[in-house]
Specification:
Largest sheet: 7 strands, mixed
Number of helices: 3
Structural class: alpha+beta
Strand content: over 45%
Oligomer: single chain
Helix content: 10-25%
Radius of gyration: 18 Å
Number of strands: 10
Shape: elongated
Distance between the termini: 36 Å
């Protein structure tokens, strides 16, 4: 497959979490094209468990106007490493700190619309701490077994694509 050559990039709009960009590119046949997309530093999803239960968060999702059961995680900030972002998000959302963190996979959550890469982190050595969520988040911590996670995905009470993708990566690495 032939690569498209980028001629220019323009930021159309931005906020603290991402930028909406427009690229002008050159096709292999020398015709120019435009591509609009969301650029972000990336995101992290954290998979951690206590005994036989995995730590989840439940929160209201504005764009879908419904509650969502998800692995903890969120957008990264460029001043931190992937692991530092994961530890920060995990502690803010769950009230736990993780002392052992490993990147186990990555994926693009919406190819063709964003250049974001989401990193899946397996966290161990979990300890409770005092923490606070962002002011825009109202989060309830939940604990689910592997069987409950699969049942929630099957019945569509877990509908978040990043959680489903992260669970697939985790299961393929650590479960039969």
């Amino acid at each position: 497959m032939k690569k498209f050559d980028r001629i220019s990039t323009e930021t159309v709009d931005k906020n603290p979490y991402w930028e909406y960009r427009k690229d002008i590119y050159m096709l292999p046949n020398k015709k120019e094209g435009s591509y609009y997309y969301v650029h972000s530093v990336g995101s992290v999803i954290i998979i951690a468990k206590i005994d036989d239960k995995y730590i989840f968060v439940e929160q209201f999702r504005y764009l879908n106007q419904r509650r969502s059961i998800e692995f903890p995680g969120g957008g990264m900030v460029s001043d931190y490493s992937i692991i530092e972002n994961a530890v920060k998000e995990f502690s803010e959302e769950t009230g736990f700190i993780s002392k052992e963190n490993v990147i186990i996979g990555e994926f693009n959550p919406f190819i063709g619309v964003t250049d974001e890469m989401c990193y899946v982190i397996k966290s161990n050595k979990i300890k409770p701490i005092t923490s606070e969520c962002d002011e825009s988040e109202e989060i309830k911590v939940m604990y689910l077994t592997a069987q409950e996670i699969d049942a929630c995905i099957k019945e569509n009470s877990i509908w978040n694509g990043q959680t489903i993708a992260a669970w697939t990566i985790y299961k393929n690495k650590y479960m039969e």
